[in-house]
Amino acid sequence: MTKRPIHPLRAMREHLNLTQKRLAEEAGVGAQTILRAEHNKPINAESRRLLCDYFGMTPEALGLVSNEQKAVGNRRPPDTPAIALPEIPTSPIAQAIAQGIVLASKQLESADMAHTRFHVLQRYGLAPHLT
């Protein structure tokens, strides 16, 4: 049985412990958009831009651009930073730390939760630093 690789958008969403619905709300897109993107279905350019802005990543890094779109020249704007997916820790100590960070992030739930979560993850090097 061959395992299908996880979609980059789903990997980032799960890394930040977000549901499809929550990511859609925070990024300003529809929940169906997240579902479509994670199943390699095309999404519109504005939704791609909003998701890329939310994660601070390129459409290619998030798996939002098909090979056909790349060939046509649907590239990221030159001022968009190219940020690779972070390495997920595998040692027991790193996993325990990551679990602690996730628990701390959950405790910071508030009206400004997305902003707070992003800055907490940034502080621990689990989210990109945007300039």
UniProtKB/TrEMBL annotation:
Protein name: DNA-binding XRE family transcriptional regulator
Organism: Thermosporothrix hazakensis
Pfam family, one: HTH_3
Bilayer-spanning residue ranges: none
Lineage, highest ranks first: Bacteria, Bacillati, Chloroflexota, Ktedonobacteria, Ktedonobacterales
Keywords recorded for this protein, A-Z: DNA-binding
Residue ranges of every copy of the HTH cro/C1-type domain listed in the record: 9-62
Keyword DNA-binding part of the UniProt annotation: yes
InterPro entries in UniProt: Cro/C1-type_HTH, Lambda_DNA-bd_dom_sf
Molecular function terms from GO: DNA binding
CDD domains (alphabetical): HTH_XRE
DNA-binding among keywords: yes
